[in-house]
Write a structure and sequence with these properties.
CATH topology of the largest domain: Hypothetical protein af1432
CATH architecture of the largest domain: Orthogonal Bundle
Distance between the termini: 27 Å
Helix content: 55-70%
Strand order of the largest sheet: 1-4
Number of helices: 20
Structural class: mainly alpha
Order of helices and strands: EEEHEHHHHHHHHHHHHHHHHHHH
Radius of gyration: 22 Å
Bound molecules: fe (ii) ion
CATH class of the largest domain: Mainly Alpha
Number of domains: 3
Largest sheet: 2 strands, antiparallel
Length: about 400
Amino acid sequence: MAIKRLDELTAGMVLASDLKAEDGRLLFKSGTELEERHLTLLERVGVSSAEVEDTCELSDETLCEVEDYVREFFLYVDPDFPPSIELFRVVLELTGKAVAGGWTLPDVAERRAASVEHMADLFLKGMGSPETIVKHETELASFPDVYFRIREVLEDDSASADRIAQVVSTDMSLAAKLLKLVNSPLYGFPSTIDSVSRAVALVGAKELSTLALGISAINYFKDIPPELVDMKSFWRHSITCGIFAKIIASAQTGLSPERFFIAGLLHDVGRLIMFKKLPYASTEAMLFARENSIPLVEAERSVLDFCHTDISAPLLKSWQFPEGLSDMINYHHSPMAFPNPLEPAIIHVADNLANAVQVAEGGMYVLPGFDEDAWTLLGLDEGFLDRAVEDYRQQIDTILTAFF
Ligand SMILES: [Fe+2]
Ligand SMILES: [Fe+2]
């Protein structure tokens, strides 16, 4: 990090800390990439210096290494489709910046995970259908009570805002997480919201119940042993997908963005059941995907004969999860196979964007495949990707802290 005087600042530099005016007003958040218009504003408000991230020019050799590294993640994406080319450029830039900032590209050895031999699966390949696996899980463990009470409220159109606040407030940790989330940049409310009833009033009753439902479902998985799988990475990917899903949904008309955040958050929920029931096989699938640079969903199919959406379908059905949300989750790898593909298409694109930005964060999995029809259906304009990635960067760290 370096402090630069106003006359040393140039477009393209990235702020290393929040930039405030003399009166303490926030001008730009940390992580903002300065543009000419920002510099003009800084001059106008009389800011004299700013803390920016170190930039160093990458050698041609390093640039080639970065490009080769990034290209590997795009093997399953059509190289001639203009939005794919644009996404590749965005990821290349992000990765280049990360490397310039001191991040080292993971080498091949790092792509191999620790030994998984000690794990014993409850089901072996061919011995359990997704339905049997889910049945075994749902019979064994009971789902949190609060989940069902929220679902009732969600289904009851006449439920009052007070009733919703009351149900949510019975679970302290759920209420705390919800408040953190509505106070995060996901909403960007100007002042702090300190009660659930205020959150219901501001966010909306249905929207807040949807958020509460998703968060209570997540709590069910809090006991998955961390040595089994890197749960932090799993949730980072899920939250990232949720953020992008909400950004994409906000660019459409007439959609409630909260539903998409939750669908994104839970899009790979089938994988969590696989971690619990088939730890060895799911780790094997992860290794297979990394070593061969194939999408994880394809690796699951090779190792297990089914994939995580085959698991999420019976799982969400047994939880009586709202149908629209379930469809988005179950079809996120094949959105165009769904009769009304718009909603699953949003999760599909968000999942790809999540995998894409994670390349520059040490993500290990190639993009699952960018369905051109799904992208086209969303009618996103040209500058969308750059804006969406910038929005994501502004939000991710604070939203993560709402969950961990
Ligand atoms: Fe997935
Ligand atoms: Fe995913």
